[in-house]
């Protein structure tokens, strides 16, 4: 089946606004944008990865002229990512540059901002020193389009932030858009008319005259820099990435570089925006960047604020999969931070302070994937069970940890939690905690007699809580697992994986499951199906037991989005029925076509719920 998806404005801009691309071409364009699929060419071994992998949590800041516009140009609101307003509203270069006269962030208080990051429990701040619009929040001899020369404010904002970070003991990193520069005639994706004799090789002029001098300024004028966070390398030739690596290493050997520098360089991998991987990625050191609402920079209409609990859950999920989490705030044009973001960061920060042991310096979960009730981090012999959704039956079950339980306590107050072990299965009984005043995300600390090592990563079906078997966990034969990414409305990226492209009736997708309690399970399916593959029939089985089902087309998103590109297939959730899993231990769940139409459906996940 040929799932389609909405390509983002970024990918389109990178591909010189070619409106009709195949799905494969679009996917490739996003790889270029994020540089994420290219294997890092050097073995990630930078000494600073020690703090990076220990600290887990950083603040990202998107701030610039676009923040003053807040999503509005000439009285019209442009819905999308705030910092892309110049592109979305097609603002002429001269007019955009002239707008700098309105940027006067008199209320900016660097110390307050750094203290907010500290209160949130973040250890590093990375700010957009220069985004794609080319405007510098620092003083630069290489450009006049800077806060010091083009605005009434005139003061170097990065200097203030660097001083405040140094005073408060917070690391500072700079975001620098090395390829896209919409206001530089020779820059990537210039929004004006290129000079007459322009050739793509003239990128060199921009690179030598602006990128090299400005990155040098950032590396030499602001004290110790923890990282330079490059973005959207696009088609920039590898030699430029290499030059930047050399430049950073020369001036600040301790400074980290993210993989979006392009060309396979970088000290660690930045996954696609807002991607919280459900399964542990095998890419060495990595991070997820995310934001407190949907847009990166301030946009007046974007009220989709993440609650303190959501922030904690996302931080835990990333930490549990072995990554680091960088969460963005978008200050307004006057320098103030939206109150909702402040509250969420402060509240989640209180939780983090009380549970710091379960985040900083942890190793991630011994399981490659999370659970429906929450997720796990670990340190030595200790496991930290972060309970997002208190299980209905008051019991958590884990098996095959390769170690024995010694004790279980609530991390926030050290109170004892009942636990027992039968064979290799542990049970943690939460009954004694019911009715108590619990933290937003309660954490149970399990102390074992050895570090947990889960040798068999088959999904554990515990007989108590629902379990979703994801496409990412399947073995596909005669079909394929494929990831899709699209931007939904205000810049928030969605990431879905499917088992799809069923070639024949002999194709199959299988999931290994470790059944802790045999019996009846209620099964449901989340899938996507195009019109021309509707009414195909399928068999889902486990051993001799099976369920037969038919799938309907799942519908598509409207094409009338501000994003160009064809419609994206929607997902559909259906109940399949009740299936008996007769034996405990390793089993296999299998899906095969019974009557295949077209390339069949895309399976996102199958959920098993104990049937009571
Ligand atoms: O185009 C940028 C976008 O504006 C934002 O800065 C994000 C943050 O990761 N990076 C690019 C898109 O991935």
UniProtKB/TrEMBL annotation:
InterPro entries: FUC_metazoa-typ, GH, Glyco_hydro_29, Glyco_hydro_29_N, Glyco_hydro_b. Residues 1-23 form the signal peptide. Its EC number is 3.2.1.51. It comes from the Bacteria. Residues 39-357 form the Glycoside hydrolase family 29 N-terminal domain. It is an enzyme of class 3 (hydrolase). Keywords: Glycosidase, Hydrolase, Signal. SMART domains: Alpha_L_fucos. Pfam families: Alpha_L_fucos. Belongs to the glycosyl hydrolase 29 family. Alpha-L-fucosidase is responsible for hydrolyzing the alpha-1,6-linked fucose joined to the reducing-end N-acetylglucosamine of the carbohydrate moieties of glycoproteins. This is alpha-L-fucosidase.
